[in-house]
Amino acid sequence: MKIFSIGLSILASQASAHYIFQQLTANGQLNNIYRYIRENSNYNSPVTDLASNDLRCNVGASGTGTDTISVAAGSSVSFTADIAVYHQGPVSVYMAEAPGTAAAFDGSGAVWFKILDIGPVFPGGTWNLKQTYTFNIPGCIPAGQYLLRIQQLAIHNPWPAGIPQFYIECAQLAVTGGGSKSLGPKVAIPGAFHDTDPGYTVNIYNNFNNYTVPGPAVATC
Ligand SMILES: *[C@@H]1O[C@H](CO)[C@@H](O)[C@H](O)[C@H]1NC(C)=O
Ligand SMILES: [Cu+2]
Question: What is the number of the ligand 1 atom nearest to the C-alpha of 210?
Fold first, then answer.
């Protein structure tokens, strides 16, 4: 009985203790929760439906009530989660230029380009999981308003018995400076991820010797 109740409480804590990227650091400053990041309505739960529009910026996340922050092209930004990421899997960062304001943009269309992939390190296939992910906005992109999207794909429960989990959040940026390069390839979300992608279907506990992060190639200036 004792063991049974401990087992239940571990299950319960695993169900509730996922993680969510709530805070953006830009211009050297860590900002309040959901100030520049669209607030989602599913607490810290992941998205698992590869065909859902929720894959863009998470469930219930719209530009309403979210501020847009001015950042220079080429400058450093970070996403910080409420707790350190702990399910094994890759982290990717995408951007999409808004046709109007970032706040009004729903991220539809083949608009998303990837600016960062963090995969496992071999030999061993170890994942460097963190609470804060820091990277630079590309220096060559045109000034304008963008969505900046982080995605951690948790593949700790291997497909097809388990369903990979997408932990996603979007920040709203007004990029200043920059250049005139249109980065690509650009993909639509949903549509960019498939249950046939090796990086989605792989069993990381069995002969795990190489890994391809799902989605397009990382764009370079
Ligand atoms: C590992 O490499 C092989 C050979 O190129 C490829 O077929 C496979 O999909 C790769 N696995 C992953 C998980 O990327
Ligand atoms: Cu979890």
Answer: 1
